[in-house]
Amino acid sequence: MNSNISRKNLELNNFQPWLADRLTRWQRFIEDPTPGNILVNLATWDMNLKVDIEGSSPLESWDSPRYCTAYADYQTAYLKAEIELTKYIDDDRLPMLNPGIGIALNSLYLADGKMDVSAGTTWRHPVINEWDDLNSLHLDPDNPWFQGITAMNQRYMAAFNGDYCVQTFSHFGPMDMANALRGNDLFIDFYDYPDEVHQLMQKSVDATLWLEQEERKIVPMINGGTAIWGSWMPGNAIFMSEDATDLCAPDIYREFGKPYTEQISNSGGGCWIHHHAKGLHVHHDVAKVNGLRMTEISWDPNCPRPIEHLEELFAQNNSIPLMTRCTPQDIYEKIDIMKQGRLVLMLTAESLNEAAEAITFLRKNTM
């Protein structure tokens, strides 16, 4: 990292002018609670862009902690090429880097093991096979996966020249961590072993807060705030995924998930929560998490599209910004509904030109 950049906070003048402008837009968006305040992030990850870089290889090639630094270099090169490809589109996304090789890393730093890789994703096998295995969970600075996460963040910051943001980590929520460590037996354990589940949830909380604290030593704040998944908010905030929550009844989340998610939020200065359309039935509880700054709901095959439920979701969010995916056609057809709340659109389109036209339409009809 450039020696004249603070290790605690990156100011706007540390960024390229176009990115500093986007950060300013995000600051205005967060400060203005007026409904109809809409930002749009190009969903480049869902558009099959032709981004060709030297050294590109499938995810299956990066299955060991020793590859973490090389993978960080690959991520950085890919992002810079993507920025160059899309630079003519004036959307609001903050180009992001954060340590991740699929989702396996999210629990390997707490319980060492093997990263399984296939079909463009990663996972790990459960390690809590008997409840005595809870005693094997510990936070170890010598864990090779923790060292890999740290090395990736160090690599991002060493290559930083003001054209991207760095996020500390995309953490599991406590229930997601428990699901990764225990496997799908967790969903029966809620009923058969509630005390043990509570112990596992607490260990998940402790792990998340520890990792966030360690990585914040490397990753500075940005303009006095935190960049998460293409967005920005003031102060510190912790990203958490609540995917396992989407498979539960609301009362299960209220007992076994939400109190632990709130522990992290309360200790970490706030939170940013991602979950899925499968969990629309539990969103009203997710939206009530103390310290929540933003929610993102992804759509999934054979599930309702959140963009079709905006009025209901706006009411449940109670002025907390909502992020969700959409198409250009959604913008053209639902612009009046969109203006009823605080919204961040992740726009996916058949081409960059189609996306650019939809963004132009959105700007003309919301400013």
* Poorly predicted spans: 1-6
Instruction: Note the run of SSEs as H and E.
Output: EHEHEHEEHEEHHHEEEEHEHEHEHEH
- Main-sheet strand order equals 2-15-14-13-12-11-7
Question: How many E-type strands?
Answer: 15
N→C terminal distance: 38 Å
Strand residues, percent: 15-25%
Average pLDDT value? Answer: 94
CA radius of gyration: 20 Å
| Biggest β-sheet strands, sense, barrel | 7 strands, parallel
Number of domains: 1
Shape: globular
Please state the structural category: alpha/beta
Share in helix = 40-55%
In DSSP terms (H or I, runs of 4 or more residues), the helix count works out at: 12
Describe the structure.
The protein has one domain (10-50, 88-96, 130-140, 164-366). The chain is of the alpha/beta class and 367 residues long. It has helices spanning 17-31, 68-85, 105-108, 144-158, 174-182, 186-192, 194-216, 250-268, 283-286, 310-317, 328-338, 352-366, and strands at residues 9-10, 38-42, 96-97, 116-118, 121-123, 165-166, 171-172, 221-222, 225-228, 231-234, 238-241, 271-276, 292-298, 322-326, 343-347. The strands form five sheets. It has a seven-stranded parallel beta sheet with strand order 2-15-14-13-12-11-7. It has a two-stranded parallel sheet with strand order 1-8. A two-stranded parallel sheet has the order 3-6. The longest helix has 23 residues, at 194-216. It is globular. A hairpin with a 2-residue loop joins strand 4 (116-118) and strand 5 (121-123).
